[in-house]
Amino acid sequence: MKPKKIRLLPAFITLSAGAITSISLYVTNQDLITTLLVLFIVLFVFYFIGVLAMKIIMDFMKKKEKVEEEPVSDEGQVLEKDTNE
Fold first, then answer.
1. If 42 and its partner were Cys, which of 21, 26, 50, 75 is the partner (CB 3.0–4.6 Å)?
2. Where do the structural domains in the chain lie, given as residue ranges?
3. CB distance 50 to 11 below 8 Å
4. Contact in structure between 50 and 14 (CB atoms under 8 Å)
5. pLDDT 10s digits, 60-85
6. For the segment 57-66, what is each residue's pLDDT rounded down to a tens digit?
7. What are the Cα distances from residue 64, in Å, to 3, 55, 58, 71?
8. Is 14 strand, coil or helix?
9. In whole angstroms, what is the distance from residue 34 CA to residue 40 CA?
């Protein structure tokens, strides 16, 4: 996944949770104040869940890149001579 796409993760999670909440509250015929209050809380909570998920994924990707980029050096290694010659 590209970093640009990962940065959209909080928005995607928030909007998905908001849509599901709005539809479910509409189907159950909740009043307007209850719907808006619940929707606000859901959007707030899921935004921070999305930000947390984005940070975890970005940190994981940075660690993975560091492991792949570490050069292998032969410094400090002892080479054995072949004594059979």
1. 21
2. 7-66
3. yes
4. yes
5. 988 887 777 766 555 666 666 667 75
6. 999 988 887 7
7. 14, 14, 10, 14
8. helix
9. 10
